[in-house]
Amino acid sequence: MSGLVALAATDLLAVDFFAADSLAPLLVADAFTGVFDWFLTAVVGGAFSWLAGVTGLDFLGYPYMQRAYLSVLCIGVVGPLVGSFLVYRDLSMVGDTLAHTAFAGVALALFLDATLGLAVPPLLGALVVAVVAALVVQALIEYTDARSDAALAMVLTGGFALGSVLISLTGGGISVGINQYLFGSLATVSRADVGLLVSMGLVVVGSVAVAYRPLVYVTFDETAARASRLHVRAVNTLLSILTAFVVVSAMRIMGVILVAALLVIPVVTASRLGRSFKQSLLYGVLAGELAGVAGVTVAYLYGLAAGGSIVLVALAGFVAVAAGHRLS
Known about the structure:
Elements: H1 2-55, H2 63-87, H3 93-116, H4 122-143, H5 148-169, H6 175-183, H7 191-210, H8 212-220, H9 222-227, H10 232-254, H11 261-271, H12 277-302, H13 306-327
Helix pairs in contact: 1-2, 2-7, 2-10, 2-11, 2-12, 3-4, 3-5, 3-6, 3-10, 4-5, 4-10, 6-10, 7-10, 11-12, 11-13, 12-13
């Protein structure tokens, strides 16, 4: 009898252990959500409300505008940070390619929801497909005779073609939901979107900080990096995945069509100002921040598309810097 009691007690302890073990990730997620909600409401909301009172710009106190500004502040950092390694390797079109394949991921998620009832978050679908596309591009370049521009063109057109086919299979039923991802929107940026963007931003910044030296080495002399036994393929894979993270995180506000602009334009602008790669990185982030904040402000004041406004402001900054550099 005592043996049965002991066995039962052991089973109960095992059940409690596994229950606690399975609840741990949920508790961590809840804790992170609580901290982020506090940060978004108390810190970000408080700061913008104070700015609204000081400047008299009431829209700075609107929660959806605060989320939009926080989003572009994050994008303004991670876009030029990753884009610098792409532009200096003549891979500026990587961002555009992954953005169009991310569109296919959004279409796939909406298609699964509409046809099979599988509630896949569109941004998750976009992230998975964009990462796979990044790895496919790298494989095409390494294992076939395809040139990098040809590999990018094939994956870009293939991703967009897949997205359009999935839309047509539903009779256009998911086209309404996908428009906000194509062109971006200020009003549809939710707390969850901002949380995902901040999380991805921290991952990108942390990864670049840790792998900065190998990334720079491969960027400026890949042949020497291989000769020094540096794992070039791993560095290239990391850069591809980071690019996918940036593209997906910026989709909701920039839109698929224009998301690659903040990977390229601020970097090209900064290249006219920086005397070293580190200076160019800093100037690129500054140019991205100014373009993002000014673009969102113009978009709200004049009822324009946020992504288009940000890109036009970034282009205006490049023209101003190029003209000043020419005249000096």
